[in-house]
Amino acid sequence: MSQILEQSIQINATATVVERCISDLALMHRWLNPVLRCEPVGAWSTDVGSKSRFIIQIPLLKPTLNSVVVERQPGLVVWEFQGFFQGRDRWECQPTEKGTLLLNRFEYDIPNPLVSWGFNTFAASWTKEDMQAQLRRLKRVAENS
């Protein structure tokens, strides 16, 4: 059973600038949670089929999600994840009169009942708060670019 976390934020920058913050690895690392590291598999790209690993920097464990870009259009990047959970992370830039509305939709399923219980009990609310914090950091990066 999939779960969905969805957030949005208004950014006072063009959709092109906001998209670059999502698709440029150096800019991405300026707004990603510091305990999360994205490493390309091969050359970095956000083209469909491009692969990367998102690694949670927990000493000794370092849980990893393998991802592949499954949808890409101007202003849209969708990563699909496999690992201790499966899901999709959708980033969509919608131009507005005042800049860009950035939508982030994180849809996931945790097939292991014990891991699912642990995540829902201890990490789900933190994940939602972290998504909001990431959007605020991305907003700062985009508005200062």
What key phrases describe this protein's structure?
7 strands, single chain, globular, seven-stranded antiparallel sheet, alpha+beta
Strand and helix map with partners:
Blueprint: E1 3-11, H1 15-23, H2 25-31, E2 36-41, E3 51-56, E4 64-73, E5 76-82, E6 86-96, E7 99-109, H3 113-143
Antiparallel strand pairs: 1-7, 2-3, 3-4, 4-5, 5-6, 6-7
Give an account of the 3D structure.
The protein is an alpha+beta fold. Helix content is 32%, strand content 41%. The protein contains 3 helices and 7 strands, in the order βααββββββα. It has helices at 15-23, 25-31, 113-143, and strands at 3-11, 36-41, 51-56, 64-73, 76-82, 86-96, 99-109. Strands 1-7-6-5-4-3-2 form a 7-stranded antiparallel beta sheet, with helices on one face. α1 crosses α2. The mean pLDDT is 91.
Poorly predicted parts: none
Shape: globular
Radius of gyration: 15 Å
Beta-strand percent range:
35-45%
Helix content: 25-40%
N-to-C SSE string, H for helix and E for strand: EHHEEEEEEH
How far is the N terminus from the C terminus? 39 Å
Number of helices: 3
How would you write the strand order of the largest sheet? 1-7-6-5-4-3-2
How many beta-strand elements? 7
Mean pLDDT figure: 91
Structural category is: alpha+beta
Give a nutshell description of this structure.
With 145 residues, the chain is of the alpha+beta class. The protein has a seven-stranded antiparallel beta sheet with strand order 1-7-6-5-4-3-2, covered by helices on one side.
